[in-house]
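lol ok so funny story. i was supposed to be doing the assay writeup but got distracted and ended up predicting the structure for this chain instead. priorities right. anyway since i did it might as well share w the group, maybe its usefull for someone
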Amino acid sequence: MTIPELFSLQQQYFAASRTKDINIRKENLKTLKKALNDHRLDIYKAFKDDLNKSEFEVDASELSMCIMEIDYFLKHLKSLSKRKKVGTNLLNFPSKNHLYYEPYGVALVIAPWNYPLQLALVPAIGALAAGNTVILKPSEYAPKVAEVLSVISDYFEDGLFSVVTGGIKENQELLDLPFDYIFFTGSTNVGRIVMEKASHHLTPLTLELGGKSPCVVTATADLDIAAHRITWAKFLNAGQTCVAVDYVYVDKKVKDQLIKKIIAEIRKGYFDDDVLSKDFVHVVNEKQLNRLLGLIDQSKVVFGGKNDGLYLEPTVIDNVAFDDKIMQEEIFGPLLPIVEYDNFYDAVEIIRKMDRPLASYIFSSDKKEITYFEENVAAGSLGINDCIMMLTNHHLPFGGIGKAGFNSYHGKYSFRIFSHEKAVYEKGRIEVQTKYPPYTEKKLKMLHSITKIGKK
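and the output, tada:
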């Protein structure tokens, strides 16, 4: 079946109102959950082949996120979908008003390679829960996971949930179609292309992009906790995480201590007798590896820096300046630059002048510092004395700001972005005649009284 034929089939499926019933949506989510459990072993093998991701990391950062999102909607979908009564105003009194959540129609989800299951299915789950049909385009750089996703799509009726594999050609063909909603996760450069394509059809969209997420460590921080959590957050998935710590910006009074503790954490977590753990995720491909190697200034490396094929060691780089090459782009790999500062408030001002990232982090024991950071550093989300974990809480929205993207998802926020919030107004027989002609002085005074025009 061609891509236009597949799109037409989904349009027909949606037009038949086969996704409107809440109970049917729940059954679709249960089907997805069953498919994931049926193919767990296939998923593990696919991740091993594509990224060398261990079973533990697959469960912790991929499967669990999908299962928890499904369970959330199975529990809350009825209340999320319920018509919500709202009030009226004097101009429309008396009247009844409510909000009705209706699906957009056919949704396109374009997923990246770094978390090829989670970042494909979590938005797709939200789209299905809201009553849309979904065409999912996984990344060609994680081909084995894409194959499993194709098998999972066979669990569904034709026209409800489909997977299109391939590369740039298929992406372009999909983006030329008049989808009702587009959800894209990936780089800022590709995000611009997606947004331009969406504009041709005035298609609403969500962009989940990235950026250089800073992690500030102040002199008041608990350095043991900071080193432990930063190390995990940076080198999870070999640093190929959109909300990974991109660089550490640390008070020079505690910099050397922090570096020693980070190196100790790396040795403990990722090495066995100076040999890199067999569970460490490799860089996705040679192109990305060469890009990362080009960012390393070996004269500033204090730990790591070597590679064996696609396996690149966790690498700590000290004495980094903001004009260094490694600070000119999002790293998206296992390289951790360390930048020092003299004054906390000056450091915040420097961060404020940079592009707004998907996440920002601070480790501090000083409430004043934390509050100042929260109020003055714009980012998609903020982690205080921890990193990354905010995106595992479905009560919090996850999304970017500025060049890091726009719109948020997870939990109820996914339901909202994949639903049109339709305003419904119902007027009874009784009404004030003020708005109808002829317009008299008395009616004008009444209008001013209601609207407060002319009142200070």
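The domain at 214-395 is CATH 3.40.309.10 (Aldehyde Dehydrogenase; Chain A, domain 2). The CA atoms of residues 267 and 273 lie 9 Å apart.
back to the writeup now i swear
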